Automatic annotation (TrEMBL):
UniProt protein name: diguanylate cyclase
EC class: transferase
Pfam families in alphabetical order: 7TMR-DISM_7TM, 7TMR-DISMED2, GGDEF
Transmembrane portions of the chain: 195-215, 222-242, 254-275, 287-305, 311-333, 340-360, 372-392
Domain GGDEF: 471-602
InterPro entries per record: 7TMR_DISM_rcpt_extracell_dom1 (IPR011623), 7TMR_DISM_rcpt_extracell_dom2 (IPR011622), Diguanylate_Cyclase (IPR050469), GGDEF_dom (IPR000160), Nucleotide_cyclase (IPR029787), Rev_trsase/Diguanyl_cyclase (IPR043128)
Length: 611
């Protein structure tokens, strides 16, 4: 019975001792010097929550005198709360000379910051800064992407400072200020800006690489990734305050942070859904990702219409559901999509960064420069790893392209003869009436092909047309081997049959657009609009077709061969130039043993013929 009062008394004494130590510590001035590097913070020892956000300075001073200020019950953040927070602290200048300091707000999410100060216990508090995210950037007293309050202390002076941290509706606040000398803050800002510039440059290069890959491959996935990378720049530049500092200096609004974040989430989820092909292979997880996409759309609506509480709720929900994408990636990896493993790793980097930011915002971990910049660094790591996975995707796209090209070539070879036959049929139908009237004047009476005069006329027109289109042309000079011996041995009727059979064979193997004619006797000419390799292949095919002709002349069939000379042009050569060169090549084929194709070296032009 006697131990219970003793225990209660000890508990009361401990609580009293704790309260006294907290009070003494809270009223202890922070000693500052000339070379402050941001290591010291104003702390959370004396903080007041203005739940409605309507207390004025006089009411706050009454609350301060009444002891209503107390320590913040978290690692640094107020959590998602309505209203505003007030912080009270003292700065002590032990030096005999005046000292100017810059008090930097530790985070970027604050909308309004008001600062008041006075010498310790002397006079009224006066306003030293009124900073707002919604005011033009030129109103800031210090050119910095975060709120900075300059404070000047006289020699051996201690000053009291009151700072109001305000958000519209609900929001997160970190009622703490880092203490810097102006020179050290400027140097730190340069270091941070360099880091951010490196990250943004990396995002931009990834966007350019993906855009090039999209143009080359024609895949929409690469274009979405490019937009996703660009949205990262817009998102982090806006969140970290650089958009307000450098771009929208006079027209910035807090809702731009939510809208840029919503756009990035939308593009990220769209890219993830396309990359992992969840619609085709993981339908249930795809429904969840679709819900996340709709939630991101709602976040965008909340940002546009400036519904801050809805924006905070939807972005928190988005963060909580982000690990679902990692699960989808692992499932697709198990299903055989190798690059999905890299995607899951990349998304894990992003989720770790965002969750660390959430823990910091909820006050579960202390706010430091490391965890302040870890989310954008994690986002950069995510994009870099996804780019590596996109390399695998590009390799697959390349293999699919090669397979498609091979199938196309095979199909083209199979359909080539059918297309040529169809062209010949349609051409004959269109020209049948005209051909009947001009038949005797234009054609060789025996073979039915163009005579020499008509060939020269038509070939000249065809050659000029090819020259206007800047296409290569080739003239074939074809001479039947030992034709005079066939006439002398088997008779002219057999020779005529040979010429007709030869002509039919050639006509069956050329296009209706090619110009084919009999120059006289056993000499024939053919003009085709083809480059060197294609024309040479056609000549070899014609030579083989001619060698396959058999003429029955009794017991033993008569075999036929031909010598073919080729002349090529890409310039302003005439048909007579080509005939001369092709004729020389044809005679060279006969001298080399007949039954062969000989082509001129290179392409000729008019200046070559004039020399």
């Amino acid at each position: 019975m006697t131990s219970q009062p003793s225990f209660t008394l000890r508990a009361i004494l401990l609580l009293l001792l704790f309260w006294l130590s907290a009070t003494v510590f809270a009223n202890t001035p922070i000693k500052v010097g000339e070379n402050e590097r941001g290591d010291q913070k104003t702390g959370h020892a004396r903080v007041l929550h203005d739940s409605r956000g309507d207390l004025d300075l006089e009411q706050v001073l009454l609350a301060l005198k009444a002891g209503e200020f107390g320590p913040l019950a978290s690692a640094g953040s107020t959590g998602l709360k309505t209203g505003a927070y007030w912080s009270h602290f003292q700065l002590r200048n032990p030096l005999p000379r005046a000292l100017t300091l810059h008090l930097e707000y530790v985070d970027h999410q604050l909308i309004q910051l008001d600062a008041f100060s006075r010498p310790l216990g002397d006079g009224d508090f006066t306003g030293v800064a009124s900073l707002s995210m919604e005011r033009p950037f030129s109103h800031r007293l210090v050119e910095h992407n975060r709120f900075v309050v300059p404070v000047t202390l006289a020699g051996n002076e201690t000053r009291e400072v009151l700072i109001r941290f305000g958000s519209r509706e609900s929001g997160y606040a970190f009622p703490s200020m880092r203490i810097w000398s102006p020179e050290q803050l400027e140097a730190q800002q340069l270091r941070e800006t360099t880091l951010v510039g490196f990250l943004f440059g990396g995002f931009f290069l990834m966007a350019i690489f993906a855009l090039i890959a999209g143009v080359v491959s024609g895949k929409v996935l690469f274009f979405v990734y490019s937009l996703y990378a660009l949205s990262k720049i817009s998102c982090w530049a806006t969140i970290l305050g650089y958009t307000h500092q450098f771009f929208l200096r006079d027209q910035f609004h807090w809702s731009l942070m939510s809208s840029s974040g919503a756009l990035t989430i939308l593009l990220g989820l769209t890219f993830a859904r396309m990359f992992l092909q969840t619609r085709q292979y993981t339908r249930r997880l795809d429904y969840v990702i679709l819900f996340m996409t709709a939630n991101a759309g709602l976040l965008l609506v909340a940002a546009v219409f400036q519904i801050k509480i809805l924006a905070l709720v939807t972005i928190t929900l988005a963060l909580l559901l982000y690990p679902v994408v990692i699960v989808a990636g692992l499932v697709r990896w198990r299903q055989g999509q190798t690059e999905a493993a890299f995607f899951s790793l990349a998304w894990s980097f992003l989720v770790m960064g965002l969750f660390l930011q959430a823990f910091r915002d909820l006050g579960l971990v202390e706010h430091t420069l490391f965890n302040y910049y870890w989310p954008p660094v994690a986002s950069f790591s995510e994009m870099l790893t996804i780019m590596f996975a996109m390399g695998f995707q590009m390799r697959r796209v390349y293999q699919d392209k090669k397979s498609t090209e091979r199938q196309y070539r095979e199909h083209l070879e199979l359909s080539k003869s059918r297309l040529e036959a169809e062209v010949r049929v349609r051409t004959r139908e269109l020209e049948q009436a005209k051909r009947a009237a001009e038949l005797e004047a234009r054609t060789d009476p025996l073979t039915g092909i163009l005579n020499r005069r008509s060939f020269l006329h038509d070939a000249s027109l065809r050659l000029k047309l090819a020259q206007r289109k800047q296409k290569a042309s080739c003239l074939f000079m074809i001479d039947l081997d030992h034709f005079k011996r066939i006439n002398d041995t088997c008779g002219h009727s057999t020779g005529d049959a040979v010429l007709c059979q030869f002509t039919d064979t050639i006509r069956q193997s050329i296009r209706a657009t090619d110009v084919f004619g009999r120059l006289g006797g056993e000499e024939f000419a053919l003009l085709v609009e083809e480059p060197r390799d294609s024309a040479h292949a056609l000549a070899e095919r014609l030579r083989n077709d001619i060698a396959g002709i058999e003429i029955l002349t009794g017991d033993k069939p008569l075999m036929l061969t031909a010598s073919i000379g080729l002349a090529f042009t890409e310039g302003e050569a005439t048909i007579e130039d080509l005939l001369m060169l092709a004729d020389g090549a044809m005679y060279q084929a006969k001298m080399d043993g007949r039954n062969r194709v000989v082509g001129t070296q290179g392409y000729i032009r008019i200046d070559d013929c004039l020399r």
